[in-house]
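Example 3.2
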Amino acid sequence: MKVIIDPQAGFCPGVRRAVAQVETRLQRGESLTALGALIHNQREIDRLAGLGLETVSQEVADRPEELAALKGRELFIRTHGVGSALQNQLHESGFDIIDGTCPTVKRVQKLAAEHHRRGEQIVIIGKKGHAEVIGILGHCDNMGIVVADEEDLMIIDPERKTFVIAQTTIGGEQFRRLCRLIAGRAPGATFMDTTCPFITRRYDQIAGFAASVSLLIFVGGRESSNSKVLFEICRQRNPRSHRIESPAELDYTWIRPEDTIGITGGASTPQWQFEEIRDLLGQAATQLESK
């Protein structure tokens, strides 16, 4: 049995930047509170909580008493970003804000704001209710239209000038398919592919890695849209693909003695979680060999 960690797996640049920002401040002894889950990986959030990171819901901004209780702590805006109104409200309330918004996401926010100011209809191809999409909507006065599937097309006004962008982590094929449908509904629409180049490259990389091993273990948070898309790609290329969030979910009956096992994951899965699974599989291999 052989175990390989995908050399391309691990944090995307935006997540790596945000986690580094948080770790640096916590190591300096600063009091830091994240508005919403920093990333969609609960075990990494738990690790950071052990270093002193507090996490509160973004809705705390609507609850004055709870917001007042946070005075004196720095507020960290997570990688998904927030709307401009919320950010302004926090500044006006006297909070020190550390903006951990992914630079790629921030670019999409600026595009949404700019085209909204021009009076254009903003269409966001993405997942309804996703933190990133909520943040983008907050940069166009929450007047954008979120398109997740064909049923959402009827909301689009075909007579208005329309600007179409994407949640950064959706699949390229989904974006292109929905763009074709939107073009049929609003022929004069302008499209900009704002999907993340890092994530787009990962689709091909992870497909190749999944096909190169006999068994694949995908490590990723259950709430991560990116992990969901990447795992589906793995499963298409390798039917013996299994998704787990923690070592407790690892099932050793999946393993054959002759397997080459690949370990990979989503853009919010840290390296230590891959190494944790590798070490457990290594122990299992030793036990198999001793029998």
